[in-house]
Amino acid sequence: MNMKKLIGIALSLCITSALAACGGGTASAPAAPASSNAPASSAAPSAPAAPSMTLRFATDSSEDYVSTVQIYKFAEEVAQKTDGRIKIEVYAGGQLGEEKACVEQVQMGSLDFTKSSMGALTSFNEQLNLMALPYLFKSEDHLWAVMDTDIGKNLLASMESTGLKGLCWLDAGSRCFYATKAINSIDDFKGVKFRVMQGSIYADTVSCLGAVPISMSGGEVYSALQTGVVDGAENNIPRVIDMSHNELCDYLIVDRHNIMPEMVLVSTNVWNKFSAEDQAIIQECADHLQENMIAAWMDTENAALKTLEEGGMTIITPDEATIASYRAAMQPVYDNYGAAYADLVSQIENTPA
Fold this sequence. Notes:
By secondary structure, this protein is an alpha/beta fold. It has helices at residues 3-21, 66-81, 99-108, 118-121, 140-147, 150-157, 200-208, 221-227, 237-242, 268-271, 276-310, 320-329, 331-337, 342-349, and strands at 53-58, 86-91, 113-116, 164-170, 174-179, 193-196, 212-215, 232-236, 251-259, 262-267, 314-316.
């Protein structure tokens, strides 16, 4: 065999060996058996985390007012329980508008949360006029016993038809009369001029007691007391101090003629964007807000009563018979404003405290 042929055979053998070593060719090499200790294939990707959001809660109460303090605690609890995903910024002191304007903003979805008195909410939900009936609740304990039943739950739920969701109630205390003269019986109301909130039901309440109702803004009351335009007013007990009306009125009549809670509201547009899990968290935090506010209000009112008494104000607490006489005088108010809610009124009156 000549040299050229030997070289050709040798080259052919080398190329064949090289291809085999490199795995060349169309057939794939058999796969190695899987080890029983090998990690399992990766699971399906998990659902994306819920997005973070910053929401706004507006209140017309001042930064240090008892309800605002509790609202800040509500915001902190929501942030904690959502690992910071849901942040609620509190705007106090009417920064985003007065009470009714804030409710309207929540209704439109341009504001996320607010709290409101019944007075402002009745223009959105007439059913809440029920809460303004005088001497409807015998005490604050009676109020909260009622609010814990289906009556309170249904009143919260009734807001949803207006684009608002009622989350919980806030204790706003009891409205009581205070005046420049002692009032110990219904006869003592005759001719006394009282400042009242805007709204015919409040004016009629005072008229039924034989007094003279005068409607004006809260900011005008101090000068009206100074000049004798009015002889007294009515409000919750801590507000008497906040507005310095105890400087001009010597008598506080703890008759608790209106015991009306406030309501915390969230926009239904915002609520419907929350996951079911986040809705449950926010509702739980709102329930805690209601509980905390009841306790905080009791402490605040007791402290206010002590301050007023120590400052020289005479505290008059009518007995049951006197309160019954005041309630009996309210029948025209119930006839005019409560006829549509007669069944609810009966249920409330028969709910044990």
